[in-house]
Amino acid sequence: MRGTDPVRILLVEDSELDAAWLMESLRRGGMQVEAHHVDNRDGVAAALAQRTFDIVLCDYSMPSLSPLEVTLLVQAHDPDLPLIVVTGTIGEESAVAVMHAGAADLVLKDRIARLRPAIERELAAATTRRQNRVIEQARQQSDMVLRGIAKNIPGIIFRRYMRTDGSLSYTYMQKELLADFIDTGDLGDPATSPLVMASGATLLRAIHPDDRKTYRDAMALSALTLEPMIVEFRLSTASGGTRWLRSQSQPEKLSDGSVQWDGIALDVTELKAAEAVRDHLAYFDPVTDLPNRAHFTRLLIETLSRPLKDRRVALLCLGLEAFADFQDGWGLAATDALVRAVADRLRQLLEPGEVLARFEGAYFCLLLPDAPADLDQRLWQLQAAFSLPFTVDGVQMSRRAHVGVSLYPADASDATEMLQHASTALHEVKPSRGPFRYYAAEMTERAVKRQWIQTELAAALTNDRITLYYQPLVHPVRHHIIGAEALVRWQHEVRGLIPPADFIPAAEQGGQIVELGYEVLRQALKQTALWRAAGLCDFPISVNVSGIQLMRPDFSVRVRALLDQTGQPPTALKLELTESTIIRDDDLVHRNITDLASLGVSFALDDFGMEHSVFSRLSELPIDTVKVDRFFISQMTKAAEHAALVQAIVAMSHAMHKQVVAEGVETQEELIYLRAYQCDALQGYLFSKPVPAAAMELLLRQGRLLG
């Protein structure tokens, strides 16, 4: 019975009167029932699918549905669901057929009093069957788990037996795996027994000769002390390979004086290989397989401990330009590919006895135990290795290398100082002064200042201490404002206004230039939106962009996002690039420029002429403005060759359909020259210094400068 819950009955009966009579009979007998009545095959199938029943009662003599069909449906649905056939009359053969098909019982209607005890009996039997089925399934599952564990253990489960005369025998489980470790040719047919018996000689023959004594000594000690035997040893397999096993077994002294161990020998071959890799990685970089910082420092200490005689030791620290931003933009896989390519090029330059190491990122160190007298030549050789672009993910990109140099004993007294000073010299590299620097004592003071700037600049970016000044671009004849350049300024809360010349290089070295650049773009576009809404400007605002920003794959996407956020059209923005940015053969730089140009963003080439840019490269990019550097403008009125150079730049730029802006215009004489050369726009103190946004707005409302 189901306690106080009613018995859920599926009643298959074609007579409503007989169905009601059956249920009433059960209720009069004291049984609580809940019946669902059906009279055809579809009704039976639907009821079984949609409801839960404790028992099925089926009439025998239904013209459209036989008890055999009902029994088959019930058995297919749930073999533990009991079915009792209720009938008026039935022959012996028919009764046998019904019971053989799976009916639990057969009750005659003229003996209906038998129905309730038959139901109670079958409900109890069904409960028992279900419990037994669960128990059996659990037992089978447990057996499968144990078999799976035994089958998949990477090793051997064994019993070792050592007699008083010292002879050994082994009993092995997992006989199907035993052949992976020892020769089973003399062990008989493993199919005849779940266990495999073998003499001790079989295992000892397979143990690597160098490990046999270790194995025997461990076994002897365990037999003497009855402490667990724990030993690692190699096996020479039948296939000619070598496997490492780590065996642990518990000894037991038997009454006859023999010793018995039960244990397991795990296959730790892969673990041993991993440990070898781990030990290697303790001294070598995983990406390039070059010595790492710890190993290199040890080699440097050893080198400095040797007598110098007439030699000197040079330490070169090499870093890739804008590597941190490349890493952020391209991800780990591309970063590793670039680092490996750099390492491969540097390896090709190594002389005998020299050591190349990778510390982290794109930071490499090269140890020259006997530095050449002309070390500069070697440094230029290093630079030449970076003259060709690298290909990463199908994209060509140029990367310049900066090198810092320290010498022993001139610059340092030990390895720590030598590493520190070479790193300091590396951070002092400025492309305009050359790609490498030797350490000098005053660099340490500058390094401290640079670290202070980087720390304070990070706080300034967080606390909105970055602001913009604007300098107008003026028509050379009418003197009205035809453009404006946004210039970044940093107002420090203690030290006041910090010059860009101080913090821009520090931002580039510290990896902050990208976020600083986007902050400048955001502020410039936000201010442009205000001026355009007031009808004060219809020209694009010029914003300087670092080459580091253009080497990021997401640059054009982020600029478009800033335009959308500020509601400005692409034509409201002009990006100013340096010559060094466009000279490099970098697919990514070219892609970012062309993507934005296709939207309507315009580009200017700033400080033109300072790095001897070629016009052929300029013609390949969608740059519509060339800005002549202030140095040439300042010399134009003093030397005829500079005047001719400025005139030539203007003429060639016009021939390429590009506008020309003269920077740093400060005198009326310079203005007269530039008018004569038909320069398109002027920028400089003659018209206005860079001023805050409020002052720039007054100039825009004034419209015309110089009266």
Q: From the structure provided, what is the oligomeric state, counting identical versus distinct chains?
A: single chain
Number of domains: 4
Distance between the termini: 110 Å
Low-confidence stretches: none
- What portion of residues is helical? 40-55%
CA-atom Rg in angstroms: 45 Å
Beta strand %: 15-25%
CATH topology of the largest domain: TIM Barrel
Instruction: Name the CATH superfamily assignment of the largest domain.
Output: EAL domain
Number of strands: 28
Secondary-structure content class: alpha/beta
What profile does the largest beta sheet have? 10 strands, mixed
Number of separate helices:
26
Q: What is the C-level CATH assignment of the largest domain?
A: Alpha Beta
Using the alpha-carbon principal axes, give the shape: flat
User: What would the average pLDDT be, to the nearest integer?
Assistant: 85
What is the CATH-assigned architecture of the largest domain?
Alpha-Beta Barrel
3D structure, described in words:
By secondary structure, the protein is α/β, with parallel strands linked by helices. It has four domains: 7-132, 3-Layer(aba) Sandwich (Rossmann fold), CATH 3.40.50; 153-273, Beta-Lactamase, CATH 3.30.450; 284-440, Alpha-Beta Plaits; 452-702, EAL domain (TIM Barrel, Alpha-Beta Barrel), CATH 3.20.20.450. Helices cover 44% and strands 23% of the residues. The chain has 26 helices and 28 strands.
